[in-house]
Amino acid sequence: MVQVFQESTQPIERFSLPESPSNLQSAPVIIRTALQEATTALNTAGVENAAANAEWLMAEVLGCPRPELPLHWSETLEATQIQRWQSLVDGRVDRIPLQHLLGTAEFCGLAFEINSSVLAPRPETELLAEAAWAVAAIKEESVVLDIGTGSGCLAVSVAVHAEETTIHALDISNAAINVARANAERHGVAERIIFHEGDARVALPGTCLFDVIVSNPPYIPSAEIESLQIEVRDHDPRLALDGGLDGLEFYRSLAVSCLSRLRSDGRLLLEVGDGQGEVVADLITAQGGRVLEILPDLNNIERIVVASSDNS
Ligand SMILES: C[S@@+](CC[C@H](N)C(=O)[O-])C[C@H]1O[C@@H](n2cnc3c(N)ncnc32)[C@H](O)[C@@H]1O
Fold this sequence. Notes:
The chain has 312 residues and is an alpha/beta fold. It has 11 helices and 9 strands.
């Protein structure tokens, strides 16, 4: 979910373009040059993939798909575009995450609204979504619980891909639920997602049994948060990161609460941090659950623990 990042020791240079309106008119900003200068500024600020980041921001300013940028290289920016460009590049130099600046993130081929209240969905979590909708789609009218829904990326993509499902989406953050609800409406699945605000460590919603319980809980050990990439440390909600002293606080709680809420053929699907797979599997086994498999992500890191409540 998060990458540890070596902070750049280079001084951060501000990105600068002509500031006064008269300068804006007299100094044309050629798109190719603006991209080159922004790439240099982002590199200096320690932004990974600086050139690609600059291109994403320019595509946003021009309102065109990123692959079409070369068609515009020799064109100049208009005054309002210069202001928008300057503010976006400044934000990225300040290490505001790209998705927060763009206001959207792509997940499983769907565009999700993102703001500072929610974690921008990570690519490795797409595996969790795919595993969840694959199980949910086996049965007609599956009932799914998404714990820590955040942007709603898991709940919404499962709802889109498993069309007969009903989904309960829980988060402790009211602001996150508002974002998730907006995303559910955006993708036309709001009628099948029931949102619950509450603390998953205290109670899970309702009393029904679920066919699928899916969660990407906070799993960073508290003391490691300070050493995370600046984008994550300073701009992602701490609520979405902090997994307690050893990062396992939520898994301990979920191992107890989730197994008793699964149907006998139901599945618990948990995303885990690097190196947490076996210990989370042990926590589930210790509560009488049966760990069926631990799926690796594309980097071959154990990422998803799949379990059932039936240990017979
Ligand atoms: C790692 S984020 C996952 C967000 C989203 N599901 C995803 O995969 O991108 C964890 C989410 O759990 C929520 N959360 C944190 N503590 C919680 C708690 N005690 N009960 C319910 N949700 C909680 C956070 O607000 C955050 O949205």
